[in-house]
Amino acid sequence: MKILVTGSGGLIGSEVASYFAAKGHQVHGVDNNMRADFFGPQGDTTWRQKQLAEKHPTFKAHKLDIRDRQAVLKCLEELRPEAIVHTAAQPSHDLAASRPFDDFDVNAVGTLNMLEAARRYAPKAPFAHMSTNKVYGDAPNEIKLKELAKRWDYDDPAYERGIAEDFRIDRSKHSIFGASKVAGDVMVQEYGRYFGMYTCCLRGGCLTGPNHSGVELHGFLSYLMKVNVTGGVYKVFGYKGKQVRDNIHSHDVAMFIERFIEKPRSAEVYNLGGGRGNACSILEAFELAQAATGKKMNYEYVEKNREGDHICYISNLDKMRAHYPGWDITVPLNGIFEQIAAAWKERSAK
Asked: Which pLDDT does position 303 carry in this prediction?
């Protein structure tokens, strides 16, 4: 199978590219290392692109800016892929506020460019889009919460298993990033419904893994572990450090995308996270980090929380498991911490 992966130098894009290339599929990776422009040298992903090319003979890299409409159309016309995995994005809340044009052009316009090119030249190709749980804005903060010793949790039985896909996406503060991702998310759904294409939006929780180039503005666990391994100071922004995220390993994301490509559906949305089993607060993450490295976390507390930030977010995975019963979480939370710790130790030693 010929698969096109955008953002192939990023965490999910590179994981997907590696996953399918290892199975012998022809993988075309699209990336222009925009992450280095967004986050500086520490966000550079060329190391991962080089790694993919060296390891997988069926992987081919293409330098392409998804904002360039004509270039995207030409690429799809030439390649005519049998499946498309769209992971390219501007991923930071804070950066979006200072660079709103770049944020919208990448997340919304870039997604539209990919969709229209796919409709013209690969209309039968399953189109998996990496959306985000930030499409729900800060509406999850309206759920009744209870404060525990080290975390916030839902105090409403309706959300015991987490937030499902029917949760509202409007009438809340999203951050500029969240709003641009809503635009892309809705367009992906619309191309499925209006044109009958096989599309899905994967509303990711905290996507993570050892290949993440985590930075302070994006990449929760990767950046946290980087600080722990290298001996820096981690900043906690508000909510007493008890804010909760559910974490999913990039390998489990790639496995779900494979299931979708095998049995595609039209205009679907899925809350793709680690679920309750892989959820932790920042304070709990500090303990897990120490268990993985033997080093205590150095941190400082900032009273002001990030705009539009979730106090507690846990993905309800019931719909994913019902539609694709062969899929489930395979990498537990402690395993994620151990893998990321090992990766940062290796990188910092170079």
From this structure: 92
Burial zone of 49 (CB within 10 Å; 0-12 exposed, 13-18 middle, 19+ buried)? buried
Q: Which domains does the chain have, with CATH numbers?
A: 2-348 (3.40.50.720)
Average pLDDT, the chain: 93
**DSSP-assigned states of every residue in 166-191:** TS--SSS--HHHHHHHHHHHHHHHHH
Provide the angle, in degrees to the nearest 10, between the axes of the packed helices 110-121 and 175-195: 20
Positions of E strands within the chain: 2-6, 26-31, 59-63, 83-86, 127-132, 145-147, 152-154, 199-204, 206-208, 234-237, 244-249, 268-272, 279-281, 299-302
DSSP designation for 154: E
Terminal alpha carbon distance of the chain: 36
Whether the CA torsion 140, 141, 144, 146 is positive or negative: it is positive
Query: What are the pLDDT digits (tens) for 103-155?
Result: 999 999 999 999 999 999 999 999 999 999 999 999 999 999 999 999 999 99
Q: Say what the pLDDT of residue 214 is.
A: 61
Task: Kindly report the number of other CB atoms within 10 A of residue 222's CB atom.
Answer: 24
Give the pLDDT of residue 159.
98
| Secondary structure letter of residue 108 according to DSSP | I
